[in-house]
Specification:
Strand order of the largest sheet: 5-4-3-6-7-9-8-10
Strand content: 25-35%
Distance between the termini: 18 Å
CATH topology: Rossmann fold
Structural class: alpha/beta
Oligomer: single chain
């Protein structure tokens, strides 16, 4: 179990455990003003949905997870919080979910998607599904999101740099434009970013992309930068 300040995440039944990527996305994502509905695609343990429920009291959150054991665990994690009435987990693929929601649309969609497309598959099938994009390619993520997002809604994701650039290149095909881009550097000594936090807006308007950087650690392991502490201090017990 991973314990945060206002909730705990059980993760013994899920392939992908609580990690920095999910925490970064949950803390960085900022839904548009007036948002009442959020969708978390590939929720896993439910971490990002829980973080957004903590941050935004007026939002209802749907969390989609294709793996049944992970979905059961996410439901358990949701029920253990005071926000349980505002978060619902759905054990379906995003394609099935899109077909089931009818006219419902979301102002904000978030996803920490699988991203390994050509690497060696893990012998643990659950971990393969969680880490490889066989079941959720970047194109499928964008296509499905475009069908259930409101005009001027946002799609926020975290990806390795190469996959992040691929997402940005594909975005226009589905009506998205890049609004915010944050390059994540592991340490102050890192010459290149390791991850990209990307916010896409579903809009017909012309927009200017705001770019920024964030460094997680100083030169020593576990010696966190003030900017990382400021971003995540609402959640981590150590801050």
């Amino acid at each position: 179990m991973f314990t945060f300040k206002q909730f705990a995440v059980k993760q013994d039944q899920t392939a992908m455990k609580v990690g920095t990527d999910g925490v970064l996305l949950g803390a960085w994502t900022t839904p548009p003003m007036g948002t009442s509905s959020i969708l978390d695609i590939g929720t896993g343990t439910g971490l990002i949905a829980l973080m957004l429920a903590q941050r935004f009291n007026d939002c209802n959150i749907d969390a989609v997870e294709i793996d049944s054991q992970s979905c059961i665990q996410a439901q358990e994690n949701f029920r253990a919080t005071s926000w349980s009435s505002r978060i619902e987990a759905h054990n379906v693929s995003i394609q099935q979910f899109v077909e089931s929601v009818g006219a419902k649309r979301y102002e904000c969609i978030v996803s920490n998607p699988p991203y390994f497309s050509n690497s060696l598959k893990c012998p643990d099938n659950k971990r393969t599904v969680a880490r490889h994009n066989n079941s959720l390619s970047l194109e499928v993520l964008l296509e499905c999101s475009s069908k259930i997002i409101k005009l001027d809604g946002t799609l926020s994701v975290i990806l390795p740099v190469q996959e992040g650039r691929e997402l940005i290149d594909l975005a226009a095909k589905f009506g998205f434009k890049t609004e915010k881009l944050c390059s994540i550097f592991p340490t102050e000594n890192s010459k290149e970013p390791k991850r990209l936090l990307i916010e896409l807006r579903f809009t017909t308007d012309e927009i200017v992309c705001t770019e920024s950087d964030l460094t997680i650690e100083k030169s020593e392991r576990f010696d966190y930068t003030q900017e990382y502490i400021n971003l995540t201090k609402e959640f981590y017990l150590k801050f």
